[in-house]
């Protein structure tokens, strides 16, 4: 099984370049956060912009783990 790598940013500018580089991208919105999943350098990657603050980061991180299975 290939691990899914999660990347979480607070601002759109932080994740935009990674999101644009995803191969075969798919987007899914959960709890108001848009998650972009695809392949990058032969790895499964999920990128999201959680927004500012610890609560937003914690909620998005939990979704990355439980929904997308990131390590």
General description of the model:
The chain is an alpha+beta fold and 71 residues long. It contains two helices and four strands, in the order E-H-E-E-E-H. Strands 1-4-3-2 form a four-stranded mixed sheet, sandwiched between helices. Strand 2 and strand 3 (33-40) form a beta hairpin. The longest helix is centred in the last third of the chain and has 13 residues, at 54-66. The termini are close together.
Q: SSE layout and pairings?
A:
Elements (H helix, E strand, L loop, with lengths): L3 E6 L2 H10 L1 E8 L2 E8 L2 E7 L4 H13 L5
Parallel strand pairs: 1-4
Antiparallel strand pairs: 2-3, 3-4
How far apart the termini lie comes to 12 Å
Overall residue-averaged pLDDT value: 92
Strand content: 35-45%
What best-fitting shape do the alpha-carbon axes yield?
Answer: globular
Question: What are the segments in which pLDDT stays under 50 over at least 5 consecutive residues?
Answer: none
Number of helices: 2
State the share of residues found in helices, binned by percent: 25-40%
SS elements, strand count: 4
Give me the side-by-side strand order of the main sheet.
1-4-3-2
Given helix and strand content, the structural type is alpha+beta
Spatial extent as radius of gyration: 11 Å
């Amino acid at each position: 099984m290939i691990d899914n790598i999660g990347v979480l940013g607070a601002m759109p500018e932080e994740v935009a370049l990674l999101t644009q580089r995803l191969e075969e991208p798919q987007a899914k919105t959960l709890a108001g956060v848009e998650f972009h999943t695809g392949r990058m350098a032969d790895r499964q990657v999920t990128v999201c912009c959680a927004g500012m603050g610890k609560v937003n980061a914690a909620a998005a991180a939990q979704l990355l783990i439980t929904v997308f299975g990131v390590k």
